Amino acid sequence: PDEPAVLEWEGALDYAEAVHRARIALTRPGADVEVRSRIKLLICDDLTECDPSQVRLLAQLARCHVPCVLTADPDQTIYGFRGAVAERLDEVIDEFPDVSVHHLTTNYRNRPHLAAVGESVRSGVPVMPSSSRLRRRANHSTSTEAGTVAALRAPSITRLVRKIAGTLRHHRVAEGVAWRSRAVVPRHGGV
Q1: CB 129 within 8 A of CB 90
Q2: Where are the alpha helices (DSSP H) in the chain?
Q3: How far apart are the C-alpha atoms of 21 and 31, rounded to whole Å?
């Protein structure tokens, strides 16, 4: 038997079917009142990571007048394999009623030099999303601890790997920087 038949036999649902059935249930008369009485606040940790069906479910809940807090980082999307697309922000934002966009511009995780490198890397990538009201604002950091950081770019993955290895080797041999004092944070999964 195929997977849907097995799930049906077990009385179970896979994730996509659960989302689909929830969307159907929200079309019932009076569903909005019931939803409002049960859900006081809906928080979506990252809207850019939702697939189209999940976004539509969230939008349906918002149209039931459930207060929503939706976060999104248009500069990253890791669930592309299941349909998440950062560029979709332009499309989906209008599905939500009474949207108010707030930009978080203070970076509490990174020191100023790391935040500066992150911004320099981000400035070299295509602007996402195209809507200026959704586009991220430049970050600044609140930390003051010193260190050295660099953003390396190259025309190919092979050249980038060689460039990183050469830079690390130079700092070790010429400057005596310990291996444990360094880290490489790749922006591309192939590095």
Answers
A1: yes
A2: 3-10, 15-25, 31-38, 52-63, 89-92, 112-123, 157-173
A3: 13
Written as tens digits, the pLDDT of the chain (191 aa) is 677 677 777 878 788 888 999 999 999 999 999 999 999 999 998 887 888 899 899 999 999 999 999 888 766 666 666 666 666 677 777 788 777 777 777 767 677 777 777 777 766 665 555 566 666 555 554 545 566 677 777 778 888 888 888 888 888 888 888 888 888 877 655 54
| Cα 95 to Cα 23: distance, rounded to the nearest angstrom | 14
Question: Regarding beta strands 68-70 and 140-141, do their DSSP bridges make them parallel or antiparallel, or are they unpaired?
Answer: unpaired
Q: Is the pTM of this model over 0.85?
A: no
User: What gap in Å lies between CA 6 and CA 4, rounded to an integer?
Assistant: 5
- At position 100, the amino acid (one-letter code) is S
